[in-house]
Amino acid sequence: MGLAVYIEDQNHQRVHAGRQAGAHLEAILPHVDADALLAGVHPHGDTMFNSPQLLRVMGEIDLLLERNFDAKGDAAEFKSILDEVVRSRGYLWISGD
Fold first, then answer.
1. Are 56 and 37 in contact (CB under 8 A)?
2. Any idea what DSSP says for residue 6?
3. How far apart are CA 90 and CA 11, in angstroms?
4. Tens of each residue's pLDDT in the chain, 97 residues
5. Which is nearest to 48 in space by CA: 93, 4, 13, 97?
6. Dihedral of alpha carbons 16, 18, 22, 25, sign
7. Cα dihedral value 43, 47, 51, 54, nearest 10
8. Coil, strand, or helix at residue 96?
9. Which residues, 6 or more positions from 72, have their beta carbon under 8 angstroms from its beta carbon?
10. Is pTM, for the whole model, over 0.70?
C-alpha cells in the first residue's frame, strides 16, 4: 500500500492529499539526511507535522533540490503540498501501512 498523506486544518479536519502525494514522499525519503525531520517518517507508523515543523521540512527539501538526485520532480511536487499546509497554518499527517 505505502504512505498516505493527509492535510489537516486547525480544527484537525482531515483531507486526503491524493495518491501522488504519498508516492512523491516515498520517492524522496531515501535521500533525506539521517538527522532530518523527514528521516523520522516510518513506513509502518503515523507521523504528524505542524506548520513550524513543516517550515524546517521545506528547508530540508530545498537542500535536496540543490543536489543532483533522481527525485527532484517528486521533491518539488511534495514541497508544493507543504506550501499549501503552511499557508493555512494546518498540519500534515502521514499514515504508514
1. yes
2. E
3. 8
4. 699 999 999 999 999 999 999 999 999 999 999 999 999 999 999 999 999 999 999 999 999 999 877 889 999 999 999 999 999 999 999 999 8
5. 93
6. negative
7. -30
8. coil
9. 64, 65
10. yes
